Amino acid sequence: MNSDLKTTIGLEIHIQLKTNRKMFCFCSNKGEDESPNTFVCPICLAMPGTLPVPNIDAIEKIIKLGLSLNCQIPEKSKFDRKHYFYPDLPKGYQISQYDMPFCKGGYLEVDGKKIRLNRIHLEEDAGKLIHDGERSIVDLNRAGTPLAEMVSEPDIDSPSQAKHFMQSIQKLVRALDVSLANMEQGHMRCDANISVTNGTKRSPIVEIKNLNSFRFVEKALTIEQSRLQDEFDSYSGKEGKVTRGFDSKSGVTYQLRSKEEAKDYRYFPEPDIPPFDLTDKSFIDIERLKNEIPMLPEQKMAVLAEVVGDDLAKAILKIDHKDATLGILGDGSIDKKGKLMFGKLIVNNKEVLNLSREQMVDLAKVLGEKVFPSNILRNIISEAVKSGDLISSINIADDKSSLTEAVDSVIKNNPEAVKKYLAGKKETIGFLIGQVMRELQGKADPGEVKSSLENKIGG
Amino acid sequence: MKPLYQLTIKEASDLLEEKKISSLDLVESVFKRIDQVDEKVKAYLLLNRDGAIKSAKLSDERISRGKRIGRLDGIPISVKDLLCTKGIETTAASNILKGFIPSYNATVVEKLERAGAIIVGKTNLDAFAHGSSTENSDFQVTKNPWDLNRIPGGSSGGSAAAVAADMCLASIGTDTGGSIRQPASLCSVVGFKPSYGRVSRYGVIAMASSLDVVGPLAKTAEDASIMMDAISGPDDLDPTTIKENENFTNLKPISLKGLKFALPREFFAKGIDEDVKSVIMKAVDDIKGSGGEIVEISLPSVKYALSVYYIIQPAEVSSNLQRYDGVRYGHSAYRDRNDLKLEELYTNSRGQGFGKEAKRRIMLGTYVLSAGYYDAYYKKALKIRTLVKNDFDKAFDKSAGGADFVITPVSPTPAFKVGEKSNDPIQMYLSDIYTVPINPAGVPAISLPAGFVERVTSKLPVGMQVIGSFKDDKRLLEASIALQDLLKIDEKPNL
């Protein structure tokens, strides 16, 4: 057992993009669960003479993904043809990207480690083969679905880190709304490369194909890692690359190809689609895409925690799906206390989320200056949600709260009169009303003062 | 009055407009002509008799209601069998597509039908447009109407022969390295290859995507412009179409006076038939006589153009033919034997379905794209392609005293005999030497009837190629109308 061997893992992740139409035709992209070959057209069936029409929405989505992973977006990009024969590939070539992908480089931090990306490119998915005894049946509903292929550098050093990388990517593409990213449905699939080295000699690089759950990624890599460690002494260091499959039922990997077959895809630039000028704003506006990228969960957490602390930030993220708090925290017209109080409030009172953006700003400003008893605050908010007018609900509440204070202090300072009233001398109420009216300098409705006193004293 | 089938589009259109003839008369006259001569010429692979008669009646109805769509409404035309026609068998003249009936129209076919044109049939071609003689058709050999022992040129040989023999008023061809212009030249009709992207390629069975162009073959340049008016323009289904629309309505001849015509030295050097050369030089003299300026230029990179073409073209061909795998449509070995393994299904279907020339190009193309050879061949060819393009840009650069148009022969020889070159692919490839360089450059070019050369048994047509700058299609057609008025070649073959 060579446990001091260093493990090197790289991932290739395929992500189906969530678009209305397929990558190069006008078929709906929602045929995955429908009857076979019902979401197809002459273009995705590769009928003679048909031509691909690139889906700009898919291009925007992959660039958004690239921007949020710190990729470099080049000035020019193009599609290429990758040739091979297989019944799920109607044209006999896949339209993919060879040397000019939409996204170059980039990185993602996982478990405090920067995992570099090599590239993300755009291509079309193939159809599905359904094996039925001696026959195989072709379903082309999926053929032509936009697919982003992300290739990491071999920066991952453990199977669990590989799993975390995949999980972060899933969170990211969902936050960006570029993919449904359900692994069990094949929206996200992964090939993993793993090797171990002692610094002078390297084991063969094992590629494990088609891992379709987070668990399988970790499990298959763990199995391969121990196998490579166990067999390390028997390697010459010149084995090169081997491809293995993973059987999720039995949990074992098995050899697919002993030696990497000399595959020749005969890539060449797709002549049916002119190259793209990504600096041409009439084609694609990278600045707009940058602005459209929502804050990602980790970024939100960091921004919130800075003002309200970790615990409150976590609580806010759980309930505040509209990112209202983030908006308030980013508003320069609100002071720090107002922001903190707003954050505390929203955790205790979801109704705040029903206020308009302007109302929230006003509320946060008031909270910076004043402290309200929580029941009064609750009233203010529900009134404001109903009336749409936050300021007057605050004013009414203000008046109401000074009335309550005055009533409380008059009761406290005139115990004799209260006693008399409770003993049955109801006319004493007139004296108490007068005292409250004096305290409020006449700015109150005597009827309201009366009922407030009666409520408070009881009896 | 001459028989209706002999009319040009312009003449027939005027008569239809004046209600002197009906579209049904015209279509029936054309079919009668086909019945008389196509047994000898063999231009058509398929006749759309019932559909055409039905469409002619609809057209006549529109005309009687004063709702004629335009100048093509009611005009009988033919379409090369490389363009998909909805509900009508489309074969590319290859066994691998025999029996294939598309569920969609090529954009060009769609546009022609919307303009009221009547498609009388699908014309023969070299299978998948691979060839210069139409002898590579898997179904029949088309003969040159001027001499039935000779080839009509290719690959749009069926279209050129059909127009020359008055079996339609005009036709649609495709041109990847001369496939419209060379047969037009050998059959004495007008063949127009528009700028790359001027006409949609959607639904046109691909030969070499970056070179393929769709265009008209017609009796006159004016008719060609009427066809262009209907078929050109941007298409959402073809991302390579030119974005701006060009208006080809009612083009009039422009004065040749003061126009600068350039003769590239490289196109008049050795290899050209002396008789062909003198026909072209005679035409050049006529142009000079009517005030056109003639200058000599050099297009130095053109000598590599044929080599470049025979790398890029087979590369794209090999890729475009990958889809014919016997799985979804066309010839499938599975029909005879359903116990085939996948690999056998592929090799048997393709082996049986493709002809010799397709196989030759698949092998050439696969070779030049394969790992280790890509840089040496394909990548280098792309670089030289840019040089060829630059040569033409320079020739037409007005700010540097460039020409309005370039004039060359279309073909180094007149039509050769059937079988003469069919076993020698290199000789066959060389017959395109003057047309091929135009496609990598993407510029528009036209073949105009320029005269005849006398041979022992027959006189054979010679065409003149006029080349314009990229996107200058309209002016090239306007000049062509004027040149045709000047050259006045309106003899008909004797069938």
From TrEMBL, chain A:
Gene3D superfamilies in alphabetical order: 1.10.10.410
Coiled-coil region(s): none
Any single Pfam family the record assigns to this protein: GatB_Yqey
InterPro entries recorded = Asn/Gln-tRNA_amidoTrfase_suB/E, Asn/Gln-tRNA_Trfase_suB/E_cat, Asn/Gln_amidotransferase, Asn/Gln_tRNA_amidoTrase-B-like, GatB, GatB_Yqey_C_2, Gln-tRNA_amidoTrfase_suB_CS, Gln_synth/guanido_kin_cat_dom
Q: Which reaction does it catalyse?
A: L-glutamyl-tRNA(Gln) + L-glutamine + ATP + H2O = L-glutaminyl-tRNA(Gln) + L-glutamate + ADP + phosphate + H(+); L-aspartyl-tRNA(Asn) + L-glutamine + ATP + H2O = L-asparaginyl-tRNA(Asn) + L-glutamate + ADP + phosphate + 2 H(+)
NCBIfam families xref list:
gatB (TIGR00133), PRK05477.1-2 (NF004012), PRK05477.1-4 (NF004014)
Q: Which PANTHER family match?
A: GLUTAMYL-TRNA GLN AMIDOTRANSFERASE SUBUNIT B MITOCHONDRIAL AND PROKARYOTIC PET112-RELATED (PTHR11659), GLUTAMYL-TRNA(GLN) AMIDOTRANSFERASE SUBUNIT B, MITOCHONDRIAL (PTHR11659:SF0)
Q: What protein am I looking at?
A: Aspartyl/glutamyl-tRNA(Asn/Gln) amidotransferase subunit B
- In which organism is this protein found? candidate division WS2 bacterium ADurb.Bin280
Q: Which gene encodes it?
A: gatB
From TrEMBL, chain B:
Function recorded in the entry:
Allows the formation of correctly charged Gln-tRNA(Gln) through the transamidation of misacylated Glu-tRNA(Gln) in organisms which lack glutaminyl-tRNA synthetase. The reaction takes place in the presence of glutamine and ATP through an activated gamma-phospho-Glu-tRNA(Gln).
Single GO cellular component term: glutamyl-tRNA(Gln) amidotransferase complex
Q: What keywords are assigned to this protein?
A: ATP-binding, Ligase, Nucleotide-binding, Protein biosynthesis, Transferase
Asked whether the UniProt record includes Nucleotide-binding among its keywords, one would answer yes
User: Any idea of its EC number?
Assistant: 6.3.5.7
What's the name of its gene?
gatA
Q: Could you tell me what this protein is called?
A: Glutamyl-tRNA(Gln) amidotransferase subunit A
Q: Taxonomic lineage per UniProt? A: Bacteria, candidate division WS2
The family note in this entry says: Belongs to the amidase family. GatA subfamily.
Alphabetically, the GO molecular function entries are: ATP binding; glutaminyl-tRNA synthase (glutamine-hydrolyzing) activity; transferase activity
The GO annotation for biological process reads:
translation
